[in-house]
Amino acid sequence: MAVELPRLLLQFQPDSEDLKSRQKYDQAAKAFVRQLDSVSASHWSKDADTPQDVLEILNPAVNSIAYAFALRHRISAAMDKKSSDTVQPGGALWNQLVLFLETFDPVQLRYAGQEYKKLVDYVEPLARNAGSPGLAIAPIRSAMIRLDPTTGTFTSTHVDFIRLCLETRSYAAAEPILDNYIHSLPSSIPAAVREGSEYSVLAADVARSGEFIHKASGHSDKVTFVDIQEYYVLGAMAYLGLRQFAKAQHFLEHVLIMPSANVANGLMLEAYKKWVLLSCLVSGGPKSIPRSANATAIKQVRGSSKAYEAVADAYTHVNNMSKLKAQINAGAQTWSEDGNTGLVKAVLDSQMKAYVSRLSRTFSAIPVFNIARNVGGSADETTQYLETLIKEGHLNARLEQTDKAETGVVLRFYLDPTQGPLAKTEKQQQQALFKQTLRTNALADQVRDADYRLTLTKEFIENLKRQLKRHGPPGDAMDTAWDDGVEEEDIMIDL
């Protein structure tokens, strides 16, 4: 090589005065990546494990592009030679890989999407070969959040990550990713967006992840509708593991409303069955199908979900728990085969909670013996159950032991919402409102970003031309409605 590798790798200095302009930074970063792409694989192993090792010279947080190339080639060479000690968890290369994924400069890695993806893809198989796949969760999650703090642009890594979390039952570990809204899919970004202004380059401070994570960036493999559906189904299962039923139901609704060409697949069927049960837990009974769902596909999944709909119907009869128990017992084999036994039990438990909650509307206090007689159980079992409800925050009440033997233990409800175990201080209410405001503002920003990117698409521009040709230049407001009598093209068909 005309230039020694260490000197070449240090040529791109992101903090240089010459690169203060975002346009100059963009040009230099792209040129630097092209240079590194031309370096042969043999050069990257030169001086390995010596004081002149480039992995020792480079700072992963400052020289992120160069470090990504060097580390990727080094790990690849070690795996080819089966030098497993260095790449196994605890080995030198493993430690360098984890450090890099936790500290890399996210702006630089916008330009090195292929290296980013390859390094992230190394983590799980290395951890799995060591017999501890769960060790891959934290590094992968760190890389996803570091590249895109919103993790709102859907990538193939999203699917791989949630699969790993479900396999290792690490439901809480998946929550930081699942809680973020998916606002973009990898798409083709028009070349015009990348040229011209200081704010249209990849390195721009205002760049959204949907602009630098696209089909040609290398940050993701190709994603399909099935990938997206699988992500939401598995995400819902993770939320079920955390007993966050409302979030799980919301995820399953994403699956039900996706375009389906009048044909339902297995993921939609699984989503519908769970969604029906979750409607009981979240809404207190059967919920209407979202109007945007494909009617033909929904008809198909409903035809295979009669047992679940029967449970949901029986659930609405709160004062007749025997009917729900009968439906659940009759479909025991179905719940087991579908992997929904635990969710069905939660539905039965929920009806019990609903029954007790309804008592608070009529009574200020009621003997536990009376409750046990109505739900079919002993007084001691019912007392233990009520204690659990109170401790877990499902019931704003207390249990009292009376002096009368015929009365026994009494369940007494708190009529004042500012009293009892569920009472909240004014400060706690303010904190809850503040958190909700932050979530709403974040979602509004993503919607505005999606609207802006929509105006850059070929379909939008062609529609605008048709509108201008038909109606002439706009007056007070531009009519950008897409209902122009022309059959719409399925813009997602290539996914």
Q: How large is the share of residues in beta strands?
A: under 5%
How far do the termini sit from each other?
Answer: 41 Å
Largest sheet: 3 strands, antiparallel
Query: Average pLDDT across residues?
Result: 86
DSSP E strands, number? 3
Shape: elongated
Helix content: 55-70%
N-to-C SSE series?
HHHHHHHHHHHHHHHHHHHEHHEEHH
Number of helical regions: 23
Q: How many structural domains in the coordinates?
A: 3
**Lateral arrangement of strands in the main beta sheet:** 1-3-2
> Radius of gyration, Cα only, in angstroms?
29 Å
Keywords: Cytoplasm
Protein name: COP9 signalosome complex subunit 3 N-terminal helical repeats domain-containing protein
Organism: Didymella exigua CBS 183.55
InterPro entries: COP9_N, CSN3
Give a verbal description of the structure.
With 495 residues, this protein is mainly α. The chain folds into three domains: 5-150 and 177-219; 224-357, no CATH class; 363-423, Arc Repressor Mutant, subunit A, CATH 1.10.10. 32% of the residues are buried. The longest helix is centred in the C-terminal third of the chain and has 29 residues, at 426-454. Helix 13 (245-256) runs antiparallel to helix 14 (266-283) and helix 16 (306-315) runs antiparallel to helix 17. It has a three-stranded antiparallel beta sheet. A hairpin with a 7-residue loop joins strand 2 and strand 3. The chain is elongated. The protein has helices at 5-9, 22-37, 54-57, 64-80, 84-87, 92-103, 113-129, 137-147, 156-167, 171-178, 209-212, 225-241, 245-256, 266-283, 295-303, 306-315, 321-330, 332-338, 341-362, 368-375, 379-391, 426-454, 458-471, and strands at residues 365-367, 397-401, 409-413. The chain is 56% helix and 3% strand. InterPro entries: COP9_N (IPR055089), CSN3 (IPR050756). This is COP9 signalosome complex subunit 3 N-terminal helical repeats domain-containing protein.
